[in-house]
């Protein structure tokens, strides 16, 4: 399982040649991508404002009203996924683009209305269309992998009652890795891994004990926190090799497999 972060922009395609090499050596590969940054750009082009809400616990997240979900879906499925699929096809990989909705792949439950702060105002938000992943049915992915295809997957996921929902792409990748019994979960982003000091790329934390994430969570800002949590959960749920690594280097997947980045290990050290 290779997750390429939306923050990588055009660097997302750096993973494609590595994926070709892995497929050539007989590995089954699934690609998950995000696309928040591109969706924000698209929203701006459409004259839409991206709003954020802050929960009681201080967590800041995107306010996904119907218009924002539309921008996210258009961005991920229309702007981010096609060039990835095209680049993989160009290198000789039989890539297929999908969302979590296709084939009932990822089911989610909508986040219930909550008291939050939006634009400095305390209010109850009832129209947020985001949720948590409830279930993964990997049947479609297995069918594609057995046929020699490389699925390129992203949110949204489907709530049978509320419809398509935005879910976090790092969680999405982690849950798919667990459901497929993947050997590897490689999460590529625009940083070398978890850093002790966000402004110092040399301050990489090489190993994180997955059953003692708490201390490390304090190091991480909001968007890195969810990466740590979901990667740690995947490791605890049985994915043997879980790495957060730099997607901006020439051979990012092979470098991560060779030990660069932040690796999740069992047991406190
Ligand atoms: N301790 C940390 N180490 C590394 N990155 C961090 C840390 N805390 C916060 N971050 C931020 O997390 C970002 C990566 O998350 P995000 O922007 O969501 O990337 P992606 O698109 O790959 O999911 C980094 O660019 C960095 O700004
Ligand atoms: Mg992110």
TrEMBL record:
The keyword Kinase applies. It comes from the Bacteria. Residues 2-244 form the Aspartate/glutamate/uridylate kinase domain. GO terms for cellular component: cytoplasm. InterPro entries: AceGlu_kinase-like_sf (IPR036393), AcgluKinase_fam (IPR004662), Asp/Glu/Uridylate_kinase (IPR001048), Glu/AcGlu_kinase (IPR001057). Gene3D superfamilies: Acetylglutamate kinase-like. Keywords: Amino-acid biosynthesis, ATP-binding, Kinase, Nucleotide-binding, Transferase. This is N-acetylglutamate kinase. Pathway: Amino-acid biosynthesis. One of its GO terms (molecular function) is ATP binding. It holds the Pfam family AA_kinase. PANTHER family: [LYSW]-AMINOADIPATE KINASE, N-ACETYLGLUTAMATE SYNTHASE. GO terms for biological process: L-arginine biosynthetic process. Signal peptide: none annotated.
């Amino acid at each position: 399982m290779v997750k390429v972060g939306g923050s990588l922009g055009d660097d997302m395609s750096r993973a494609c040649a590595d994926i070709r090499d892995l497929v050539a050596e007989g590995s089954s590969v699934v690609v998950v991508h995000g696309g928040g940054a591109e969706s924000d750009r698209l929203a701006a082009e459409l004259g839409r404002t991206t709003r954020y809400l802050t929960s009681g616990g201080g967590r800041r997240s995107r306010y996904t009203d119907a218009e924002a979900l539309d921008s996210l879906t258009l961005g991920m499925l229309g702007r981010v996924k096609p060039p990835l699929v095209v680049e993989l096809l160009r290198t000789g990989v039989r890539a297929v683009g999908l969302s979590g909705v296709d084939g009932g792949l990822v089911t989610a439950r909508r986040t219930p209305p909550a008291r939050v702060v939006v634009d400095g105002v305390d209010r109850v938000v009832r129209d947020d269309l985001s949720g948590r992943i409830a279930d993964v049915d990997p049947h479609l992915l297995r069918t594609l992998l057995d046929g020699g295809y490389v699925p390129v997957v992203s949110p949204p996921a489907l709530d049978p009652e509320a419809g398509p929902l935005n879910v976090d792409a790092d969680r999405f990748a982690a849950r798919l890795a667990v459901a497929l019994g993947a050997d590897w979960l490689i999460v590529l982003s625009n940083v070398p891994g978890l850093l002790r000091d966000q402004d110092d790329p040399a301050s990489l934390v090489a190993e994180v004990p997955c059953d003692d994430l708490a201390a490390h969570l304090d190091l991480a800002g909001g968007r890195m926190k969810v990466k740590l949590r979901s990667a740690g959960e995947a490791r605890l749920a049985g994915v043997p090799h879980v790495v957060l690594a730099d997607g901006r280097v020439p051979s990012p997947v092979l470098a991560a497999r060779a030990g660069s980045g932040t690796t999740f290990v069992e047991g406190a050290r």
